[in-house]
Amino acid sequence: MDRILFTNLIGAAAATVSVASFVPQITKMLKTRDVSGVSLRTYAFTVSSFTLWVVYGLRLVAWPIVISNGCALALSAAVLVLKWRYGDRARPERPGSASP
Questions:
Q1: Of 3, 12, 33, 83, which residue is the least packed, with the fewest Cβ within 10 Å?
Q2: For position 93, what pLDDT does the model report?
Q3: Cβ–Cβ < 8 Å for 16, 63
Q4: 15 near 70, Cβ under 8 Å?
Q5: Where are the domains of the chain?
């Protein structure tokens, strides 16, 4: 296999896994509306970081950087929006659970 092709496949796999890593968090937040385990500050930095990567990729006209970081930006921004949306709510009680 060509060395450049192999390197590009590694990069594509890394981008795919990085982007997909946000999906379980978003799914859990939507299902439970529990955002207590999510750090607002961390995701604010994460969104800022991906925004800078997208700008960097645009300036270099490096579409793999723009596309992968743009997807990660969208998903990390979704986490941030859900944290803001559900952040002040108490965790919903599950049916059959006893309150303390």
A1: 3
A2: 56
A3: no
A4: no
A5: 3-86
| Token pair in block for residue 45 | 């930095």
Cβ burial, residue 92 (10 Å; 0-12/13-18/19+)? exposed
pLDDT band at 87 (very low <50, low <70, confident <90, very high): confident
Helix (H, G, I), strand (E, B) or coil at 100: coil
Within 10 angstroms of residue 43's Cβ, the number of other Cβ atoms is 22
Instruction: Single out the residue of 37, 34, 26, 29 nearest to residue 76, CA to CA.
Output: 26
Query: For the domain 3-86, what is the CATH code?
Result: 1.20.1280.290
Tokens matching residue 99 = 């309150």
75 neighbors 19 (Cβ within 8 angstroms): yes
Task: Give tens-digit pLDDT for 50-78.
Answer: 999 999 999 999 999 999 999 999 999 99
